[in-house]
Amino acid sequence: MKISGKVALITGGAGGLGKAFAAALLRAKAKAVCLVDISSRGKEVAEDLRLQYPPSQVDFYHCDVMNYDLFKGAFDFVQKRFGAIDIVCNNAGMAASDHNVSGSIRTLRLNLEAVYFGTKLGMDYMDKESGRGGVIINVASMAAFLPLMGSMCYNASKAGVVALTKSAGVPEQYEMTGVRVNALCPSFTETPLLDTSSGLREMIAQLPNHPIMSPEYVAEGFQQLVENEELCGAVMRVTPQKGIEIVPNRRKDRNSSSKL
Ligand SMILES: NC(=O)c1ccc[n+]([C@@H]2O[C@H](COP(=O)([O-])OP(=O)(O)OC[C@H]3O[C@@H](n4cnc5c(N)ncnc54)[C@H](O)[C@@H]3O)[C@@H](O)[C@H]2O)c1
């Protein structure tokens, strides 16, 4: 998809990766980006972006994406304010350690259930019947493949996002709806998230060969997933070791797995 002239809704837009994704879209001449976040820090992030890009192109919508009705309100807002939605990035997320039971349950709800809400709403608002087609990027993590020790629910939520994305991104469905769905799986990235789960930063420091990436580097992968029309149900891994890699959702692989 050509980003120029398109409208994007990014959840977790007040955070490290969300802000970098918004900046990447604005640099590529998106018509507008709306940051959707539960934190009022989103206002400051939007103000900061407005200093660098045309102010009318950036907005903030305060919302808890774990609440379907409130999340739908964000879609209605963006549609009304900017006339359409073309790009949805389900990026809001959190990490909690296994010791924190309520935090772990919240992690499952935010990282997986809310991504389901955002994927469903993205399909409803952008499909060929109600919209003009579009792209949904679900932010998972390398933890979907290489589990983080002591973070069962984080790992499970991210593996769930990969599976959800592959099902929503079946290319035959894209042909009907005009909506592509892809997953982005970064490895450790320098954002506030690394300091929210107790002991996470210390654990990373002890891992050999695990440099922490910049959000801007991950945003390069994000932009490719948005722009590359060939990618549907694809999983992108972004790591300092191997760079940006894409695992396509190939028809022949799906046929063989359906025979299992
Ligand atoms: N930082 C990393 O190392 C890393 C690696 C892989 C994947 N990720 C994923 O990237 C995504 C973005 O995380 P980040 O690293 O930028 O962290 P972050 O903590 O900077 O950003 C997360 C954002 O989500 C928002 N949020 C939390 N609960 C919300 C809710 N209920 N409704 C709306 N917004 C809510 C927060 O306010 C915050 O702005 C997450 O899904 C995370 O799991 C991060």
Automatic annotation (TrEMBL):
GO cellular component: cytoplasm
Origin superkingdom: Eukaryota
Pfam families cross-referenced by the UniProt entry: adh_short
EC number(s) reported in the record: 1.1.1.141, 1.1.1.232
Catalytic activity: 15-oxo-(5S,6R)-dihydroxy-(7E,9E,11Z)-eicosatrienoate + NADH + H(+) = (5S,6R,15S)-trihydroxy-(7E,9E,11Z)-eicosatrienoate + NAD(+); 14-hydroxy-(4Z,7Z,10Z,12E,16Z,19Z)-docosahexaenoate + NAD(+) = 14-oxo-(4Z,7Z,10Z,12E,16Z,19Z)-docosahexaenoate + NADH + H(+); prostaglandin A1 + NAD(+) = 15-oxo-prostaglandin A1 + NADH + H(+); prostaglandin E2 + NAD(+) = 15-oxoprostaglandin E2 + NADH + H(+)
EC class (word): oxidoreductase
InterPro entries reported in the protein's UniProt record: NAD(P)-bd_dom_sf (IPR036291), Sc_DH/Rdtase_CS (IPR020904), SDR_fam (IPR002347)
Alphabetically ordered keywords of this record: Oxidoreductase
One GO MF term attached to the UniProt entry: 15-hydroxyicosatetraenoate dehydrogenase activity
Similarity-based family: Belongs to the short-chain dehydrogenases/reductases (SDR) family.
Function: Catalyzes the NAD-dependent dehydrogenation (oxidation) of a broad array of hydroxylated polyunsaturated fatty acids (mainly eicosanoids and docosanoids, including prostaglandins, lipoxins and resolvins), yielding their corresponding keto (oxo) metabolites. Decreases the levels of the pro-proliferative prostaglandins such as prostaglandin E2 (whose activity is increased in cancer because of an increase in the expression of cyclooxygenase 2) and generates oxo-fatty acid products that can profoundly influence cell function by abrogating pro-inflammatory cytokine expression.
Matching PANTHER family: 15-HYDROXYPROSTAGLANDIN DEHYDROGENASE [NAD(+)] (PTHR44229)
Descriptive protein name: 15-hydroxyprostaglandin dehydrogenase [NAD(+)]
Species whose genome carries this gene: Bugula neritina
